[in-house]
Amino acid sequence: MNKPSLFLDRVLPVLTVIAVILVIWHVAVVYLNAPFVRDQAARAGTVVTLGEIIPQTFNQERPILPAPHQIIAELWDTTIAKPITSKRSLVYHAWVTLSATLMGFGMGTVLGILLAVGIVHNRAMDKSLMPWVIASQTIPILAIAPMIIVVLNSIGISGLLPKALISTYLSFFPIVVGMVKGLRSPDVLLLDLMHTYNASRTQTFWKLRWPAALPYLFTSLKVAIAISLVGAIVGELPTGAVAGLGARLLSGSYYGQTIQIWAALFMAAALAAVLVSIIGLAHTQVLKRMGAKP
Amino acid sequence: MNGYILAALAIWIGAWTLNEWLVRQRPASAEAKQAIGIIVPVIFGATLLAVWECLVHGFQIPPILLPAPSAIWVKLVNSAPVLWADFQQTFLKSVITGYIAGCGLGFAVALLIDRSPFLQKGLLPIGNFVSALPVVGIAPIMVMWFGFDWPSKVAVVVIMTFFPMLVNTVQGLASASHMERDLMRTYAANWGQMLIKLRLPAAWPFIFNALKINSTLALIGAIVAEFFGTPIVGMGFRISTEVGRANIDMVWAEIAVAAVAGSVFYGLVALAERWVTFWHPSVRGGRA
Question: Does A132 lie in the same domain as A57?
């Protein structure tokens, strides 16, 4: 069997689907925004033809669905054209969200790993904690985000930490579950081998369990970073729209600035993509150094 | 140090010792083993509640910061009609409708693109990518398009649940091994027969995985979408307004309802999974 080329096999299908999405998007722009144009024309007492409607639907100030070029223009305007320190710069808002995300992600990772180590080494912790860790995943934890923010605010903690705490809360579950699985993944033969070497518990942990758990850890980290970004964005909603991508979403929805919402959404998507791919890169690097087959 | 804090410490140490002792037992019968597996986490949960109660009284934490569990329970019982109305609006209308529509749509699209490897290769990376995105951000747009009432929440839930379902179903349908497929081919099975007799059963574990993920996502999506605008009813609406009015006990009551609803929902999906995929090693192993 000859290997299919990367372009034909991978890139072309994705590009086709993206192209189809873009075409549907443009049609939807005309379809959704046309009533407004007709309405305006009717009020002005003029009749517009279809040829006049279409260009107008692509250049409205507050469209129901903005055209892609409007979003790109808004993104360009708020990232490159504005100084980064400006409160209207999307880079500034993205940074606010990113710092909360990373802080929460860091705390969640440390907490999750510590809990997993405890669960693997202590039977009582395993039996009493593990069911709750799993049960807590079924609870819509995001719902308590506004309360955490307001309550912490009232005892004088505000700014980065409350948002980071929500991210921590969300991101530590996948890490606990993945790490427990990973730390238990070495099979009995290997554990017995460590036993014959008279290895202590710490030695077994560092030389066998920890390396064995790393692939699991990275898989969980990918889930965790994505979800902690969601946590940070939702955490910004109830703070009265001060700064951050969530605040941009909220203020955009208050004032009907659809283009602003879409730009914030695209920025969040780009942020998620970059974060996940950084972890993916680290994943392959670590696996390579551990001698895994590519 | 006052009595309450000492009581909290005593309860904690007592319950932990009890649990340590329980997990060291090696009961002969399977039932006793199962019972211990249930009792230990229940003791842990009850201990948490008791310690919470004692600490709130012991440190005299103002109820505006953290109400005691007993106060939350009283509030929960007293405002049952309001909570029931919120539950109906958010859970029965938005979550269930959106969950069924989103999962059904994801499943249907996966079946539709099943015969086209080209579309699969195009849609899978995009589906995986979208699953990692903060999709809840779409909520304000949906509220703008579909209005304040529950249809906009349904739309958010549909979008959130669609992609995990699509990706998992496509993966599941591809999971039957070559040997089994070749066997079906020697039986001259057509596409439909192969789907129903081999590939769909092989895909169930994947599909149920998506259904479980989606049960949580759906509730989160509906509640967060309500932060962006609702009629004056709904769990997300109640949480955000009662936080504003500093009725923290009401917020906790609402969270308790959401937690129970989410857990029961998840539990039902998990039960259905055991019933449908009774042949799967993870289920058979769990029963022994």
Answer: no
B228 CB neighbours in chain A (<8 A) are: 250, 253
Contact A264 B262 (CB under 8 A): no
Q: Are residues A58 and A94 in the same domain?
A: no
The number of folded domains in chain A is: 2
- The answer to whether the CB atoms of B239 and A230 lie below 8 A apart is no
Query: Is the Cβ of A6 closer than 8 Å to some Cβ of chain B?
Result: no
Residues A241 and A150 in one domain: yes
Read off the pTM.
0.80
Does residue A46 sit at the B interface (CB-CB below 8 Å)? no
- Chain B partners of A146 at a C-beta cutoff of 8 Å? 227, 239-240, 243
Euclidean distance between CA atoms B270 and B96, whole angstroms? 16
Q: How far is A131 from chain B (nearest CA, A)?
A: 7
Nearest C-alpha of chain B: how many angstroms from A71?
Answer: 14
Other Cβ atoms less than 10 A from the Cβ of B252: the count is 24
Q: pLDDT truncated to tens, each residue of chain A (294 aa)?
A: 456 677 777 788 888 888 888 888 888 888 887 787 777 778 877 777 777 777 777 777 777 788 888 888 888 877 777 776 666 777 888 888 888 899 999 999 999 999 888 888 887 777 777 777 777 766 666 767 777 777 777 777 767 788 888 888 888 888 888 888 888 888 888 888 988 998 888 888 888 888 888 888 888 888 888 888 888 888 777 655 577 788 888 777 777 778 888 888 888 888 888 888 898 898 888 888 877 655
Count of CB atoms situated within 10 Å of the CB of A250: 25
To the nearest whole angstrom, how far is the Cα of A211 from the nearest Cα of chain B?
26
**A161 in a structural domain:** yes
Please give the residue of chain B at the shortest CA–CA distance from A256: B144
Q: Is residue A165 part of a domain?
A: yes
Range of the domain at A32: 6-64
